[in-house]
Specification:
Layout lengths: L9 H18 L12 H13 L7 E2 L3 E5 L5 E4 L2 E6 L7 E5 L2 E5 L1 H7 L29 E4 L9 E6 L20 H9 L7 E2 L16 E2 L12 H13 L28 E2 L1 H4 L5 H6 L4 H18 L8 H16 L7 H4 L7 H6 L2 H10 L8 H5 L8 H14 E2 L3 E10 L8 E2 L7 E10 L5 E6 L12 H9 L7 E4 L6 H9 L3 E5 L9 H4 L9 E5 L4 E8 L2 E7 L16 H9 L2 H12 L9 H24 L10 H19 L8 H14 L21 E2 L9 E2 L20 H5 L1
Parallel strand pairs: 13-17, 17-18
Antiparallel strand pairs: 1-4, 2-3, 4-8, 5-6, 7-8, 9-10, 11-12, 13-15, 14-15, 15-16, 18-21, 19-20, 20-21, 22-23
Helix pairs in contact: 1-4, 2-4, 8-12, 9-21, 19-20
């Protein structure tokens, strides 16, 4: 007997459980041979045995008998419970729980301590369980352990506990993971997970000490069953949870289930299209593929319309003036006049003759002021629905030409470009990590090998009050529309697991960095504590590979790829994964385009009108794309020179301004500009049957500079030359004649 003085009111709990048991039994009349013990302790034993013991088979039999009168006039209820554990037991630690408490039992050691002699008497080494209603030491013998006389496979260890309805096993509070109410415990017992969990008493291999035959409760082993012990739960759930994302995405530490990547067929040849190749025969023709005659006519019409409304005595512009204006912008970029005032470019001392030879400074300012791309009076109705209304027509015509003229290679990059602008604009963005910080954001798809801008789209800001969800995925899907058999490289702003799967359906692979807060990433990739520097952890799905690389201790970078399907690491000193090396190789497609268009040579001038700023950026991208196409069509053009692009831009600018110089009727006042005009006009006056030695747009002045062959003594350096013999002549030895006199 156990002193139950400080225990819980056993009668009151017994009545409550008895009523619950009666209700549960009445709810399941069709279950044959099922009888539940009416004691609180027996129900708790059933509950904890079923929910906490990790065993292959549980067979619990219970019988209740009335004992002698307990102390203080209370009646104790004794229930001999037998627990049969078929062996071998693995792991050796089992948790036997009574009434919401648990105690760790080592079955092997317990078998040695509970060894019995030949007479069947318990061994003196058997330890009594310490139990009590208030976790006090109770010296009563409340448990005895028996072993079967002939342990035949499977090995069975039988543990019998004598207990009362008020005993609580001593335990550590931190080991309890879940508590159940009486009703929940009954539901678990009455409604098992499978029909095989209940067995009739006739199928039990053992009998209880009492004469009654009670049903046996059988629980099949399951890794996900709540009946596993805390230690076994950690062993079975932690590996799975370590490779499972928050959204349930399951990853694997090996590539055994990963399929092999096969590069899809493209059906196109990388480089200029046939449409572009047949139309490129000079530098100017390559540039005219992007700024077509229709675009120039649109600029001419809208500029004249606005000029007549705002400028007194407006002189109409034509396509020659617009070409000359664009040519001067390109030449200003070639001469790297960043920060230089426009007036200094036309100065007779510090300026360059080509600017004065093309047009006057006032004319350049007039065109810059009146430059428009739409009808301002018709804009308000369109501007309410379209933020890009002042430039929409020209922008759509220009972006339509980009993919029409060039086929990108197998690697493309999707990234953003920031056009610097601090004026008033409804969709101006602030990007603190960019050099300009303020400007207009443009999404760009560029070829990795050549940095050709294949597609551009302006970000006009959010449409509603709330931020857009899945913006990066939408942008990449739109910017890669029409591509097939390529690999897209993007940064962590765009990359997600769902994006990778959507691109695979379009036969497009993805390589990119991914943010650590993505719910699809497993915890083993995100955590970086305790990892050594230059270490890599891979995770795989059926068609995706993720890697967590630690470039230095305490910091890791995560990338995913649908192109790489193996855990491949380079042999260098930094032991970078191949995913990282391929990402570093391809990530700079748009960055290089931004560098050549915004740092080295660019035609951007200071303005408060954002449509003009975007137009300047269009000219920069068009000039670079035309350079890519022209050098692809004619690879031998200045092949050995490292400054081919500067030579291309200089020749392009001169070809655009040559028509305006040829039609000038009055010479500029400065000697250098006047000489240049006379020389270019003289070189263009060559008859059709006479071929000059040097074309008019071969250099900045139209011809190469040389020494005059007619000057005595010290010869002058001049650009002029004789159109018959090709020798250089200075202005003192030149004669200007008309075409009729030339024929004579």
């Amino acid at each position: 007997m156990v002193n139950n003085e400080s225990g819980i009111d056993g009668e009151r709990n017994t009545d409550k459980i008895s009523a619950a048991v009666a209700a549960a039994a009445a709810a399941t009349p069709g279950r044959p041979g099922l009888r539940l013990p009416p004691a609180t302790a027996s129900l708790r034993v059933f509950q904890q045995m079923l929910l906490r013991s990790e065993v292959a088979l549980l067979q619990i039999t219970s019988s209740t008998r009335a004992g002698a009168a307990a102390r203080r006039g209370k009646q104790d209820i004794f229930s001999p419970l037998s627990l049969e554990i078929p062996g071998p037991i693995d792991p050796p630690q089992q948790v036997i729980s009574l009434w919401g408490c648990q105690r760790r039992v080592n079955p092997v050691k317990r078998q040695q301590e509970a060894a019995v002699d030949a007479s069947g008497a318990p061994s003196p080494f058997a330890r009594p369980l310490r139990c009590g209603p208030s976790q006090e030491a109770d010296q009563a013998q409340c448990a005895k352990v028996k072993t079967p006389p002939t342990p035949t496979p499977p090995h069975t260890y039988q543990l019998s506990y004598w207990h009362t309805g008020h005993l609580i096993m001593r335990r550590a509070a931190s080991n309890m993971k879940r508590r159940f109410t009486f009703t929940e415990a009954l539901e678990v017992i009455m409604q098992p997970g499978s029909p095989t969990e209940l067995q009739d008493s006739s199928s039990s291999p053992t009998d209880t000490d009492s004469g009654e035959s009670d049903p046996d409760f059988v629980v099949a082993p399951s890794s996900s069953s709540p009946s596993s012990s805390p230690e076994s739960e950690e062993d079975t759930e932690d590996p799975e949870s370590g490779w499972t994302g928050k959204n349930g995405q399951v990853w694997f530490p090996t590539d055994a289930e990963t399929t092999r990547f096969i590069q899809p067929a493209r059906g196109v040849t990388p480089g200029p299209t046939r449409y572009a190749i047949v139309r490129v025969h000079s530098v100017g023709s390559a540039f005219s593929l992007f700024l077509t005659k229709e675009m120039i006519d649109l600029i001419v019409n809208m500029t004249n319309l606005h000029g007549h409304r705002t400028v007194r005595n407006w002189t109409k512009v034509d396509s020659t003036d617009v070409h000359a204006y664009i040519g001067l912008l390109i030449l200003a970029g070639v001469y790297k006049s960043r920060g230089e005032s426009t007036r200094s470019l036309w100065d007779d001392r510090s300026g360059r003759p080509i600017f004065r030879a093309t047009m006057s400074l006032s004319r350049f300012h007039e065109i810059s002021t009146a430059l428009r791309f739409d009808d301002k009076l018709m804009r308000p109705a369109r501007h309410r629905e379209d933020k890009l209304a002042p430039l929409r027509s020209l922008w759509e015509m220009w972006t339509h030409r980009l993919p029409l003229l060039f086929n990108p290679g197998t690697d493309v990059t999707v990234d953003e470009q920031l056009v610097p602008f601090r004026g008033r604009c409804r969709f101006r963005q602030y990007m603190p990590k960019k050099p300009a910080k303020y400007g207009i954001k443009i999404w760009v798809t560029a070829d990795v090998a050549t940095s050709y801008a294949w597609r551009c789209d302006i970000y006009l800001g959010k449409t509603g009050d709330s931020a857009e969800v899945g913006q990066g995925k939408r942008i990449v899907m739109e910017m890669t529309e029409g591509l097939q058999g390529v690999t897209v490289t993007c940064d962590n702003f765009f990359t997600s697991y769902s994006l990778a799967q959507e691109l695979l359906r379009k036969k497009v692979a993805l390589v990119g960095t991914i943010r650590k807060n993505k719910p699809e990433l497993p915890p083993n990739l995100v955590q970086d504590k305790g990892r050594a520097a230059l270490s890599s952890v891979f995770a795989f799905t059926r068609n995706t590979t993720a890697v967590s690389y630690v470039p230095k201790r305490g910091r890791n970078v995560i990338l995913i790829s649908t192109r790489h399907r193996e855990a491949a690491v380079t042999e260098g000193a930094k032991r970078k994964p191949e995913i990282v090396t391929d990402y570093n190789r391809c990530k700079g497609g748009v960055d290089n385009l931004d560098k050549v268009c915004a740092i080295t040579f660019f035609c951007r001038r200071k303005t408060n009108q954002w449509p003009q700023m975007l137009f300047y950026n269009m000219v920069d991208i068009s000039s670079y794309n035309s350079f890519v196409i022209y050098t692809a069509v004619d690879p031998s053009w200045n092949q050995r020179k490292f400054f081919r692009r500067r030579l291309f831009l200089e020749e392009l600018g001169n070809s655009l301004v040559s028509a305006a110089i040829l039609r000038r009727q009055r010479l500029p006042r400065t000697p250098g500009a006047a000489t240049m005009v006379r020389e270019i006009q003289a070189s263009a006056a060559v008859p059709a049957d006479t071929t000059p030695s040097t074309p008019a747009d071969a250099s900045s002045s139209g011809v190469k500079r040389g020494s005059c062959k007619l000057c005595p003594g010290r010869k002058k350096r001049t650009f002029g030359f004789c159109i018959r013999c090709g020798g250089h002549t200075c202005k003192d030895h030149q004669v200007i004649c008309c075409k009729s006199c030339w024929k004579d």
